[in-house]
Amino acid sequence: MLAFVAGCGLTAQSRPEPVQTNPAEESAVPVSPLSTDVVQIYLVRAERLVAVPRAGHSVSDAVARLAAGPTALDREAGLDSALASATVELVADQVPDVVTVQMALEFTQLPERDRFLAAAQLVWTVTEVCCAKQVRVQLDARPVPIPTDSGPVLRALHRDDYRSVGPD
């Protein structure tokens, strides 16, 4: 349902009045961004996912930014990545709405909790970008068991598989 509200309770002023500001709250004029396109990647803080903006506009950009890991500023903010030692490669979409990512062998050698968080980071990052709804994770072009909230699975993954660590 669409509703319109007439007025906001303010009346017009007869003359302009200066607005008082607090100099401590003023900031420098922002620099023009290098890109107006932004993707969200998901890093980890205290075993929970946190959305972090990065320049980009595609699933490829998002996966590349996630694979690059946290910046020095991210680390200062307490953010990290369970993907730190695993190589991620985006594979062409095989089915509409399903993005396939190819993981390197290092992924299977991560401790199980790190594999769980790494998969959660991938799923939330990839499905943040338009039109991706699920993520299929492969190793050597074969599905591998991926830990989820309900245990290891071989199917394509979605955000509901990682609600326990999803962003607040």
Structure commentary:
By secondary structure, this protein is of the alpha+beta class. It has one domain (37-165). It is 21% helix and 23% strand. The protein is built from four helices and six strands. It has helices at 59-68, 72-76, 105-109, 112-126, and strands at residues 38-45, 48-55, 88-95, 98-103, 134-139, 142-143. The strands form two sheets. A four-stranded mixed β-sheet has the order 3-4-5-6. The protein has a two-stranded antiparallel ribbon with strand order 1-2. Helix 1 packs antiparallel against helix 4 (112-126). The protein is globular. Residues 1-13 and 19-33 have low confidence and may be disordered.
Q: Could you say how many structural domains there are in total? A: 1
State which percent range the strand residues make up.
15-25%
Arithmetic mean of pLDDT: 80
Return the structural class.
Answer: alpha+beta
Summed up, the helix count is 4
Overall geometry: globular
Low-confidence stretches: 1-13, 19-33
Count of β-strands = 6
Q: What would you call the quaternary organization?
A: single chain
How much helicity do the residues have?
A: 10-25%
The order of strands across the largest sheet is 3-4-5-6
Q: Could you tell me how far the N terminus lies from the C terminus, measured between alpha carbons in angstroms?
A: 28 Å
| Biggest β-sheet description | 4 strands, mixed
Order of helices and strands: EEHHEEHHEE
How much is the radius of gyration in Å? 21 Å
